[in-house]
Amino acid sequence: HAKEKGRNNYQFFDVRMNEHAQSQLSMANKLRIALNRNVIHPHYQLKVDIRTGKPIGLEALARWNDENGKPVSPAKFIPIAEEHGLIARVGSSILQQVCVQIRMWQDMNFEFGSVAFNLSAQQFRDPNLLSDIREAIEDNKIDPKHLEVEVTENTMMDDVEDAIQILSNLKDMGLKISIDDFGTGYSSLSYLKRFPVDTLKIDRSFINELTLDSDDAAIVSAIVSMAQKLGVSIVAEGVENIEQSQYLKEIGCYHVQGYLYAKPCAGGELPLVWEHVIREFAE
Ligand code: C2E
Ligand code: MG
Ligand code: MG
Ligand code: MG
Fold first, then answer.
1. Which atom of ligand 1 is nearest the CA belonging to 152?
2. Looking at ligand 1, which residue's alpha carbon is closest to its atom 19?
3. In the prediction, which pLDDT does 2 show?
4. Start and end of every EAL domain (predicted)?
């Protein structure tokens, strides 16, 4: 009996594995088509200074609607792009569009601060990264101070010496550096002072229940005071309600990003959303 059951389980597992592999492959193919058609675009989400209620900058987030017009989450398609050798194309398409957008905003005298873009582990280690960024900057004649990269702790910890070199090169080019999803990875605090980073972005998972869970509150306070002592700025991700924002203000975390202020939107809409946030939140 046990043997039979075991075998059935095995077959079930096998079928499921197969289905999973199939759907991954089918998504990779759709992604390839999407890249050929240039239908992956950045949206932009504001970061706000809660002391003044004014926006201070933006994060670019990749958006893709499948052939039925249904949005596919980047949390899904970015890992697939990595596994199927497509991440460099996704990355350069986003970077290109971000730089064109920055050029347009500069020309309109729209002061957006900076635009951060996300780099996955493979993009970060790509030997062409620096020259691609340099080229995008030069082609669009933008000021590199308007650009920022977001990299996770784990990406950096893969090879620390190498990471420090890449980050230093990016800084030398004039870009700012953020550590994304901070607190969820395995970076050791001793490395933090060696990485030339400007900003820590506290992961949304600690902000979710910030005002309900005393452990999360303790973790966030500790990150904020450590950052202050290291002279690194802080952004809290995923702020959805006024209680969270109030609490963050009390502990000295003034820069936030989240649905409370604005959801990511298309570049064309962004200046209006920016104005809207100022009207709603600035005192
Ligand atoms: P991330 O870089 O940590 O981006 C923040 C995510 O939190 C975004 O999800 C954003 O829409 C979401 N978010 C912002 N405020 C709130 C909030 O108040 N509540 C909730 N529930 N969510 C909020 P999104 O756009 O789905 O992106 C997911 C992840 O995919 C990103 O996490 C990033 O790791 C990756 N990603 C997105 N775009 C790119 C890209 O162009 N390149 C690469 N390599 N990765 C990207
Ligand atoms: Mg990010
Ligand atoms: Mg994040
Ligand atoms: Mg994330």
1. 34
2. 238
3. 47
4. 24-278
List the one residue out of 76, 115, 110 whose CA is nearest residue 99.
Answer: 115
What's the distance, Cα to Cα, between the start and end of the chain in Å?
A: 72
- Give yes or no for residue 259 CB within 6 A of ligand 1: yes
Ligand 1 touching residue 240 (CB < 6 A)? yes
pLDDT score, position 41: 98
Write the pLDDT tens digit of every residue in 52-93. Answer: 999 999 999 999 999 899 999 999 999 999 999 999 999 999
Kindly give the number of the ligand 1 atom that is closest to the alpha carbon of 62: 38
Dihedral angle over CA of 153, 121, 172, 254, nearest 10 = -40
Nearest by Cα to 176 from 160, 156, 162, 196: 196
List strand residue ranges (DSSP E) for 8-67, in order.
40-49, 54-65
How many CB atoms within 10 Å of residue 26?
11
Mean pLDDT of the chain: 93
- Take residue 94 and report the two structure tokens written for it: 């986003």
- Closest residue to atom 20 of ligand 1, CA basis: 238
Q: Please tell me if the CB atom of residue 62 comes closer than 6 angstroms to any atom of ligand 1.
A: yes
- What are the tokens at 53? 């209620």
Q: Quick one: what percent of the chain has pLDDT higher than 70?
A: 95
Cβ atoms of residues 235 and 202 within 8 Å:
yes
| ipTM, interface predicted TM-score of the complex | 0.98
